[in-house]
Amino acid sequence: MNATIPLGRIAGVRVGLHWSVAGIVALVAVGLAYVQLPTAFPGHSPFSYALAGVAAAALLLGSLLTHELAHAVVARRNAVDVDGITLWLLGGVAHLRGEARTPGADLRIAGIGPMTSGALALAFGLLGWLVHLAGAHVLIVAVLGYMALLNIVLAVFNVLPAAPLDGGRVLRAVLWWWRGDRYRAALWSARAGLGLGGLLVLGGVVQLARQSAEGLWSTLLGLFLLAMAGAETRQARIAAALASTLVGDVMSHPVETASGHSTVEKLLSGSAAPLRHQQVPIVDHAGSVQGVVSLRRLHAVPADQRSTTTLREVAAPMERVPTARTDEPLSGMLARLSSITDGHILVLSGSDVLGIIAPSDINRVAAERGLPTALPGVTPSPKATEPPPNWWYPGQQGPR
Predict the structure, then answer these.
(1) 54 three-class SS
(2) pLDDT for position 350
(3) Which residues form the CBS domain (predicted)?
(4) Of 63, 88, 36, the residue nearest 152 (C-alpha)
């Protein structure tokens, strides 16, 4: 799930909102301000109700963000990098740049989310009780109590054993520990998500048939789960098929590199023929990789600045570039694909570049195994050992 509204960075992690968050935030703000609070606590000004509704919506957004930041912190403590966080309808998604190495780590990363929401529910409930004893305004107490209830709902809903919910991740970790097969565990977890989504849609349709407006909410939520669980099912099948293939078997090599001190104009003028992966690692004087520059980034530099702009200035830094080792399974690369590098992964030995993997390389392997396209919209590449025409390597003379 991709963010449609970027919010910036928190502790180095990119944070964004999916458009569905706007719906739940608006529902909470409007529902409280114009329906629930005036009915339960009459006699206050419209401004007071509106302010309480907006405050509740902001606290809900903060609760969702805290839930996902907890995932990110625990993931980092378990040696899994986090690329970003996207908040959605009833929670969020932490985009991990790798996989947990053990079932225990997978369990810890997944379980911290519902635990955090439960802790927030207790905190809001306790705070509401304290401000009530202190004689605070009744609407303040009401908002805090409502937030305690919402966080309980978030905790309970997210603990359901169905992907992509946190409970689905817990189920995956348990099945992984029990059966010793991470990929089959992920497949069963995703199938459980399909089942839950189908039940929600069916229940929503029945409610709508009975002229209950709540059916629309259940149907919408079920459709979201079906879409996300369907994507996870497909990815789990592909990951299982790619588990026996190593990165070194698929990567393209050797890889053309360029000096970080070289200019954009120099590289573009020397790349008259299309590069195989449209990506060029940049290196220092010792040959150590410093980042990756794409043709897209090069062409984004204004023409009158290309002669003075160095490749290092426009390259994606290494902390934003997904990397791999030659002995890693190809299935682990699916979680590392990065929009920063257009889905390309550098294969390294220390700071030396050994090869590169493009989305088309992964699709080629999937196609060879008769599987659906692993990454839609990308044409499978020829075998890595068969360089296409107009490709040249370091030390060779480029095309004229």
Answers:
(1) helix
(2) 85
(3) 251-308
(4) 63
Q: How far apart are CA 83 and CA 72, in angstroms?
A: 9
Q: How far apart are CA 145 and CA 121, in angstroms?
A: 9
Which residue stretches of the chain have pLDDT < 50? Answer: 272-274, 377, 384-400
Distance CA 51, CA 69 (A): 27
Domain ranges of the chain: 5-242, 247-368
Enter the pTM of the model.
0.77
Supply 375's token pair: 């990454």
Cβ atoms within 10 Å, residue 163 = 28
pLDDT at residue number 340: 59
Q: How high is the pLDDT of residue 194?
A: 95
* Count of Cβ atoms closer than 10 Å to residue 167 Cβ: 24
Tokens standing for residue 360: 């088309």
Position 387 scores a pLDDT of: 41
Q: Which residues does the annotation mark as catalytic?
A: 68
The Cα 346–Cα 100 span in angstroms is 20
pLDDT at residue 372, as a whole number: 61
- pLDDT on residue 308: 92
Instruction: Produce one character per residue of 126-136: b if its CB has 16 or more CB atoms within 10 Å, e if not.
Output: ebbeeeeeeee
* Strand ranges inside 172-268, DSSP E: 258-259
- Provide the β-strand partners of residue 22: none
